[in-house]
Specification:
Strand 34 (578-599) and strand 35 form a beta hairpin. The chain folds into 2 domains: 2-98, Immunoglobulins (Immunoglobulin-like); 123-733, Beta Barrel (Maltoporin, Chain A). 4% of the residues lie in helices and 56% in strands. The chain is globular. The chain has a 22-stranded antiparallel β-barrel. A 5-stranded mixed β-sheet has the order 9-15-16-13-14. Strands 1, 4, 7 and 8 form a 4-stranded mixed β-sheet that branches. The longest helix is centred in the N-terminal third of the chain and has 11 residues, at 2-12. By secondary structure, it is mainly beta. The model is unreliable at 1-18 (pLDDT under 50).
Length: 734
């Protein structure tokens, strides 16, 4: 792998490269030059900032058509399309005073990389920095603050994302531009990602099989890694956070350096937390965890191609809480516990032709998951290795048409080494082809595409026939055709409407096909079904967005019909005192949506009032409700922006989240009552003489309310969620 990457960089360096650059001056409407304006070409991962004279320059650029974004905290963003042609281009820009607080981001998770205002699909984009300001102890807790996203939790250390009522293998996660595979079928197998070195997350709420193939039936979480340093610059930063409830600590250090063509970064982090404390002051035994994370990357930007290699290694040791026992503040997880070693390597190449582009992406993911019952000898060990590739060719534009064709594939192996086996040794191969077209006309955008996928699953025989733990070998192929059609139109300058219809699919996972044993977390004897069919769905989304200088609102509605929805049901038999459950299928429907407003009234533009409501209902065709459907949620926030002599970019927020009663429960669930959580946030950039840092303070569940989330896996044991938690964070640019 290492020699291949070095050879690739050396080979690409032999290209003859012409000098292409862009420069200019940025000013305001009064012709005053502006310092500190960020000039960003997102497709090339290049940024520059204007100097004291308002000047910027970016060198060593390829030819072609690219988006360029000018942004400054006090001015509206300006987004333009530039044509680079191996010459020195002078491109001046005038920014207008900020009239809206909505930032128009480039959407990376969709193939055309359009600005959100030009995108056919509604994609939520959240900066990780914003999620951290909300005081979440883990990345998944922060994601659950996004409307339409929830969290299936086991204490504070294990969390699984839920998008509009769908979770597990129905939600696909991308990080470093590659598909994350970490045995996500398991109820106690968490997200497995650290927020260190992640800049933002994009959420596609709905089937995205056209773009990503199997398992994107419910949606996609696409994590964007942090940017490299600007050309010819160096930076380093150190951050520290403290958590009162878990006596937790999160330490992070990073450095970046860049020349005109080469860029490098490295970042390390360490998190440690004791057992979390409930509102009654007792601690939940063995909910503690420790995490070590390291990320690095190197990038080369040329005039004919760009290439970026990133690597992440994450070591997670976490306890599996089962009861409320002796109260301690020990940090080392007790038994039973999990040890997870994850490695992600990705290589992204973009090759520029005269009027077209070719993207070649490769990923390698190694996930070694161990479970320890009562000693340091693992009773369960699963070694999952995944190699995937993604090739997309962007044809030259034909008038207002843009067309992309792609080929994607995955090769995966699972090997067991422990005494217990949840799923058999297996090999999985995916291959998919896609084509999609985007057509823009005035204020209208249309997009359509289709795709064909094939998944081949092959497993090995294990155990003795007729006994628990016996797995009969299977050799199965799953095929699926999928398509999407969408349009976006601006009825007025302020009102945008989006309508999308898309299909998606999910091949059954190994647990659903092969299970034969007791599921320890639920005391069920589960039997897989090798005759399961694809889950196949079609979803309709309708989105309205309105925004002016002082008021914005959005309404999202969806209807999702799933054929052959996979679930478990009792068959009436008992084995060794455990009820027996089979994996079966039935048609199901999910429907609901999100709505929200943002008010920042004139002349008190520093005041932000936001309110959002989200709801989802899931039912099988026989009228039974689906399990793991989140409660309806109403969130209200008051936030102020302010400036002091010693505190810049200051903010203060007060948030009230109300979770309504969940009475529409699945067969094995109990109802959940209504509860509300009050949260507070405060922060900004401190500037005292030579002392400079960024400060954040959060107080979650201020009133120390005792509650049990409907999606908590500890609910069955009557164990409440975390109590009041105060979080202090400091970040230093060194």
């Amino acid at each position: 792998m290492k020699s291949f990457i070095i050879s690739l960089f050396i080979g690409f360096s032999l290209f003859v490269q012409a000098q292409t650059s862009i420069s200019g001056i940025v000013s305001d409407e009064n012709k005053n030059v502006l310092e500190g304006v960020t000039v960003h070409i997102p497709e090339l991962h290049i940024e520059a900032k204007t100097n004291e004279q308002g000047k910027y320059q970016i060198k060593n650029l390829p030819s072609g058509s690219f988006t360029i974004i000018f942004s400054h905290p006090k001015f509206d963003n300006n987004t333009s399309t530039i044509q680079l042609n191996e010459t020195e281009i002078i491109y001046d820009m005038v920014l207008t005073e900020e009239h809206t607080h909505h930032i128009d981001e480039v959407v990376v998770s969709t193939v055309f990389n359009k600005m959100q205002s030009q995108n056919v699909m509604k994609v939520e984009n959240q900066k990780i920095k914003q999620l951290k300001q909300k005081g979440a102890a883990t990345l998944i807790e922060g994601l659950a603050t996004i409307p339409g996203v929830a969290n299936i939790s086991t204490g504070t250390s294990i969390g699984k994302p839920v998008i509009r009522g769908l979770s597990g293998n129905r939600v696909l996660v991308y990080t470093q531009g590659v598909r994350l595979e970490n045995q996500q079928f398991g109820e106690e197998h968490g997200l497995g990602l650290n927020d260190s070195g992640i800049e933002s997350v994009e959420v596609i709420k709905g089937p995205a099989s056209l773009l990503y193939g199997s398992d994107a039936l419910g949606g996609v979480l696409f994590f964007n890694p942090e940017k490299f340093a600007n050309p010819n610059s160096y930076s380093a930063d150190f951050s520290q956070k403290f958590f009162s409830n878990t006596l937790g600590s999160s330490t992070n250090f990073g450095l970046k350096t860049s020349s005109e063509k080469w860029k490098f970064l490295a970042r390390g982090g360490y998190n440690t937390h004791v057992d979390y404390q409930m509102p009654n002051s007792n601690r939940v035994t063995n909910s503690r965890f420790e995490e070590t994370d390291f990320k690095t990357g190197i990038s080369y930007n040329g005039t004919k191609f760009t290439s970026t290699f990133r690597y992440n290694i994450n070591l997670l040791s976490l306890g599996l809480p089962e009861e409320i026992g002796q109260n301690t503040t020990i940090r080392n997880p007790d038994f039973p516990r999990q040890g997870v070693l994850s490695q992600i390597a990705s290589l992204h190449n973009k090759i520029f032709f005269k009027n077209s582009k070719l993207n070649l992406d490769f990923g390698y993911i190694a996930n070694d998951r161990k479970e320890f019952e009562d000693s340091l000898k693992p009773i369960l060990e699963m070694d999952l290795k995944t190699f995937n590739f993604d090739a997309k060719y962007e044809f030259p534009k034909m008038g207002k048409f843009e067309t992309i064709v792609g080929l994607q594939g995955m090769n995966q192996t699972n090997v067991n080494s422990g005494e217990e086996i949840l799923i058999p040794d297996a090999r999985i191969n995916d291959l998919g082809v896609l084509a999609t077209t985007n057509y823009s006309w005035k204020k209208n955008v249309f997009q359509a595409g289709f795709r064909f996928d094939n998944r081949w699953i092959e497993t090995e025989t294990h155990g003795i026939s007729g006994e628990e733990g016996y797995f009969e070998a299977i050799d199965k192929k799953f095929n699926s055709f999928n398509a999407s059609l969408g349009c976006k139109t601006s009825i007025t300058d302020n009102l945008t409407v989006r309508l999308n219809v898309a299909s998606g699919f999910r091949a059954p996972n190994l647990a659903e096909l092969t299970s034969n044993g007791v599921h320890e977390g639920s005391n069920r004897y589960e039997i897989g079904n090798p005759n399961l069919k694809n889950e196949q769905n079609i979803q309709t989304d309708l989105n309205f967005e309105y925004g002016n200088k002082h008021f914005e609102f959005f309404v999202n509605g969806f209807y999702n019909k799933i054929n052959n929805y996979i679930f478990i049901a009792p068959n009436g038999n008992v084995i060794d005192g455990n009820d027996v459950y089979d994996y079966v299928q039935a048609d199901a429907n999910l429907y609901g949506g999100e709505a929200g407003i943002h008010l920042h009234p004139h002349p008190i533009d520093w005041l932000h009032i936001t309110s959002s409501f989200e709801s989802v209902t899931g039912k099988k065709n026989n009228g039974d409700y689906l399990p793991l459907i989140p409660s309806n949620k109403w969130s209200n926030t008051f936030k102020t922006d302010f400036e002091l002599k010693w505190l810049k970019s200051g903010y203060a927020s007060l948030n009230l989240d109300t979770f309504l009663s969940q009475n529409k429960v699945g067969l094995f669930e109990t109802k959940t009552g209504e509860y509300s959580l009050l949260n507070f946030g405060l922060g900004g950039n401190i500037n005292l003489a030579k002392f400079k840092c960024e400060l954040s303070f959060s107080a979650n569940n201020i009133l120390n309310r005792e509650y049990v989330s409907h999606l908590s896996r500890l609910k069955a044991d009557g164990i409440p969620n975390i109590g009041r938690n105060l979080i202090v964070g400091l970040n230093f640019n060194l």
